[in-house]
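Q: What would this chain look like folded?
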Amino acid sequence: MTKKRIKATVNPALLTWARESAGFDLATAAGKLDVDDEKLLAWENVDSEEAPSIPQLRKLAELYKRPLAVLYLPEPPVSFLPMHDFRRLPDLGLRRFSPELTLEIRFAQQRRALALELFEDADEKPASFTLETTIAANPETVAATIRDALGVDHALQSHWRDPRVAFLAWRSKIEELGVLVFQASKIESDEASGFAYWSDVLPFMVVNRKDAYARRIFSMFHELAHLMLRQTGVSDLDMDGPRPPADEKIEIFCNQVAAATLMPRETFLSEPLIAAHGAGRREWDDADVQSLSLTYGVSREAIVRRMLTLNRTTEAFYTRKRAQYAIEFQQQRQRDREKNAGKPIPRNMPRETVADYGKPFVRRVIENYHLDRISLSDVSGYLGVKVRHVSGIEQQLGYV
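A: My prediction, written as structure tokens:
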């Protein structure tokens, strides 16, 4: 007996839009999908009862270079706002988004559109994002405002000594402000550390999952500063390359806000390791830097940079340590590659889904499913997973 496949519940107009926006005529697309022209035409016909199965919809999404979730939108999107590029200029003076970065930007914007639709289906309105600042503000003052809004004092922060625990805790606090926090897994670390999309309702930020947890934490607060400036754009954190002057000023400000939020001036200078030497000590042992790194949940480079900002070390020491840490990072990556070479990496799709999409978005999808507002196949499409993984996602959220 042939197993009956679940049909995807999608708007046929989305399939036509996705095909045409990808540059395919009907015959070419049908050929690549290994279906008859008439079959594809029927899927795109609003008066037809034909629809692709979920596996077939995945093939459509792959061919059209669209995240699966976008094919579940109620209507074809008119357009998405462009992302300003705050990154360093390369040697040729041209900054381009790779296909991978372009896809992650598009995917994040589509997730937000879906989230808004889910709120509307539930006859609810998401909370407004109210934090704001200007480039003329004092970064230390902005940082104090952020910490007050998040409700995090040093005693609580110092308990998060495990980098992963610290990342998850800070992420949850930022999400409570009404910000969607996603993770991207397809972008190389040297291309972008993250990006942000501002709106007064459901703004989002995306951090690079290939980065270490400490860098992701810093990225979140860098992007939060962009949101407070009411800016949409892509960042790479590093300041050692040329940028247009206006962009450089903004990126320096966002880095300063992130550093001051994670390492408040008075608290940092009161650390026994720091206070014992006052402003006289200019070089620091690796063990001391590492200890402070764990206390504040930031990278060793961020600690030394904060020391430099607060006149507790020299530019020469910072430059030397930055180079040392970069070499050590590359060496560790190489050791990890050699250790894992040829070994299949086990995947936990429910955990990955929650990690990439964020609990607020995933919970919104699952809650709408539990209330019969969307189907199981809708959940599969919205979260980009097979139906069999949905129960595992529910477990990740504590429903089971």
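Residues 1-77 form a domain with the 434 Repressor (Amino-terminal Domain) fold (CATH 1.10.260.40).
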